[in-house]
Amino acid sequence: MLQRGHLRHIGVFCGTAIALFTSWPLATPAQTGPAVAPPPDAVVDCEILIIGGGLAGTAAAYESLKAGHTVCLTELTDWVGGQISSQGTSALDEYPRQRQLLFYAAGYKELRDRIAATYDGDLNPGKCWVSATCFMPEDAHQILWTMLADAARQGGGELKWFPNTVPKQLEFNADGSQITSTVGIQHRPAPGTAPLNTEPLSQIIEDAYRYDDSARLEKHIIQFVPAATESDGPADWYVIEATETGEVIAMAGVPYRLGLDPVSQLNPSSPVTSNDAYCTQGFTYTFAMESTAEPQPHNPPEFYPEYEPYFSYERAREGYSPQDYYDFVFTYRRIWSATPRRTERIIGAPRPQVGDISMQNWTWGNDYRPGTAADNLIYAHEQLLATGQLDTGGWLGGLRTDALARGEENALSYYYWLAIGTTDSQLGDDVKEPFPNSRFLSGYDAPMGTAHGLSKHPYIREGRRMIGRPTYGYDDGFEINEVDFTRIDFSDPFYAEHLGPRLFLALRREVASRVIEAVLNDTPAAEIPQRRRARIYPDSVGIANYTIDFHPCMLESPPEKPGNIERPGVRQAHGPSYPTQIPLRALIPQRVDNLLVAGKSIATSTIAAAAYRVHSFEWSVGVGAAATIDFALEQGILPYELVDDLPTHEPLLDQLRWGLERSGNPTQFPNTTMTNEDWDAWNPGW
How much is the pTM? Predict the structure, then answer.
């Protein structure tokens, strides 16, 4: 039986541990006393420090190495790639039209090509139906690691890689405008203990952030400092925030938002009138399961009864048998398809056969969706204060450890439900039958690379979102909002009723095809034509294109409570969007001049973040951050100086964007100009 707080692997336990790429001296004796930084075991210099090795951090490192820079890259796990590796979501989320045109950043196209090459030219070795590209997470790490090595050789850059390393403290200059050094903690197993990735993240995460050695982990304290250069520019180095939850944003004390934004003319679909920091999108511990010829033993986790009331196939599908429902979910994100393949198909994909491997990432399955102050995963500012994490040396990752643990239990319970369960919380109990011919894959050489079989890190859809600097038209700070790119028709009666006359008029003017005309003529709200394009940004440094896609928090605590429902109204904004851009202003935080934000923590509303979170976006924003830093170092300026006079023409900004375009990193989509008022040629579907 699986015990809470001591999750054991299910299935086959396999062999060798992942090797560290960074060597270190013997650990020093355990530190005692207050949680302040002890003398570092090593001082490491670099031109660019990237905190977080997900797709955005990897892309930033890739571009910076090609530009010849010395890069320090830290990562909580031992794999680069985030979403497609350590988080297990190795099914690329791509909008059909963008994929059809292969209109991506150059490095992302190279990644896709290398995935195909790894599988003998097959871009979809899993034959999944949710994506054109489903593959093994461990292969993603190896592909990206090779890309980084090749980039360093091509550009003459140097990569200093720090796996199993977390940010602990930031140090600033006298006026707080620049980060002068950072302290990180790298961990490894204590002598005589099991390899890393033996236990799930919840069991070691707080330990990993503490300076002291423990019975489980030895710590190596690293101080990252600027590399000595001959440059006399305004910044000695740059730090890129690329963590999954926006850790550096909280640690640096720059303004940010978390959770649901209040309803306004900019985010008219929001269901709340004041900020709700606790309702963020669900997080997911993915896992892999193999289809077998014979039924396998399945022992129920002790905690299974707690989570069973949550699980569901989600939506009724006309004419589906219990077998159809199971095959539908199994093939959804199948990451390996054995041969020869069956001709019988479901949703255009071959049905499961013996040897197929499926990665599970299902909303009413292993998604865990807390949404109250009692159970939220990502601590809000007041919770960080209350737990002492904003005190000097107090940072422990900014997460609720119990929420991580319950997400792990939920995922293991979902696997048992898939194999043995007979209930369905949304569809009733006549659609679910046991399908015991499957094996939960665990072990260091299994797809997730862990003894317990869950992903090394949960897939995070939404974290802290920084607020950009005040600029023209954004008095409270720059951000990307719902109205900037959604395809929703705001003439829907819902919006007039939801907003009231004043806000509804402001909304209609905000999305008007001819704003000045609507204002001067005092055109009634219902008669103002809505533009059929996204907002165009003069400071775009990349592109993004995906549906506004929500996995809403649950209304009550705990999420698995019988009869619980999704937070009402959150899905109102869910739907297709226009192709859009990544404005540089969304990467530049307030106050700190040598910090850029990449990944999912750029300046967006929670609705915009639901689209600005997928794989190709993460790559593009990493490229944009790296290119901006390279250009700023070359020009001897700070990044904010490229945009501080907008909408006045910024000649240096033009040079930055031309450089991105010349290197194969587009900053806008084809035929999406200001003069083209109708972008409906872009496929509105998934």
Answer: 0.94
